[in-house]
Design goal:
The protein has 13 helices and no strands. With about 290 residues, the chain is an all-alpha fold. It has one domain. Helix 7 packs antiparallel against helix 8.
């Protein structure tokens, strides 16, 4: 009897095999315990390399926010464009950090775990998913700092705060989809991972992380189509709904339109990302 038939009878599969899409999703779900454990192990491993450990997860966005406040708020006068600029900046920096770090780390999740990919049969989507779960944990560690900044700067806890978890879920869905898309691309063209941080930095600037983007659009006198593209830019919409949820002193332009745009991006990018990543399942780790 050929070896391939013996392996099939034993329930064994080739490392680079690709199941059907529905079965692939079920396999990911069955490995949710491994996903959580892998995310936790990655977090502990990275913290062990720093003397500050998990404290750095809090200090990093705080330092980033301080730098942005000095550059954009003080030197460039951005603090005068919003009633509570410090709170505005805090929500932007902490929320976009989840998107940026999920995409950056997720894009490298295959190339940085080639030994595991080549040795064991499992749905490779677990790797970028675990990275996003790890970044979500980092966000939760720093979340009390963001809330404290909002309260100290005069924001009140209102019923709108109940919308923040929904906004976070939409942000997370989009981040997972983008991490999956970029993970497949980087697995084929590794140079993309070197360019990605620069693109994400510019993306953040253009999405209103540091300053109200609508205010700058009015001053630049951009044509309507350019304004529309920036308004439907995913991070712009996500930051608007998060600020609308947590800040009573700021009304993001667009209102409910931002929620519609955010939901569309989240519910389109996530399934497209899963499908796109699944299509390359049999080729990860080759060569």
């Amino acid at each position: 009897m050929p070896g391939s038939q013996i392996a099939a009878q034993a329930g064994l599969r080739a490392v680079d095999s690709r199941p059907g899409f529905g079965d692939y999703i079920r396999q990911i779900w069955r490995r949710r315990a491994f996903l959580r454990a892998f995310a936790g192990a990655k977090m502990e491993s990275e913290n062990s390399e720093s003397r500050l450990g998990q404290l750095w997860q809090v200090l990093d966005p705080v330092f980033t926010m301080a730098v942005y406040w000095f550059l954009f708020g003080y030197l460039l006068g951005g603090r005068g464009s919003v009633v509570n600029y410090t709170g505005f900046l805090a929500v932007g920096v902490f929320s976009f950090a989840l998107v940026r770090q999920s995409i950056t780390a997720g894009s490298r999740s295959i190339t940085s775990n080639l030994g595991l990919v080549r040795a064991i049969h499992f749905p490779r989507a677990v790797l970028p998913l675990a990275v996003v779960v790890k970044q979500l944990r980092v966000f939760f560690i720093s979340l009390p700092i963001m809330i404290a900044i909002l309260l100290v700067t005069g924001e009140q806890i209102t019923v709108n705060w109940l919308l923040a978890p929904i906004a976070l879920v939409l942000i997370l869905m989009f981040s997972v989809g983008m991490a999956l898309i970029l993970a497949r691309i980087v697995a084929v063209v590794t140079d993309v991972s070197d360019v990605l941080p620069y693109f994400l930095r510019i993306w953040g600037y253009a999405s209103g992380v540091m300053i109200p983007i609508a205010d700058r659009l009015d001053r630049l006198g951009l044509p309507p189509w350019a304004v529309f593209l920036i308004e439907i830019n995913p991070p712009t919409a996500f930051l608007n709904i998060m600020r609308d949820s947590l800040m009573s002193t700021y009304d993001a332009p667009g209102g409910s339109f931002n929620w519609i745009v955010s939901a569309i991006w989240a519910f389109v990018v996530l399934p497209v990302g899963l499908w796109f990543f699944w299509r390359g399942e049999g080729r990860y780790g080759r060569g």
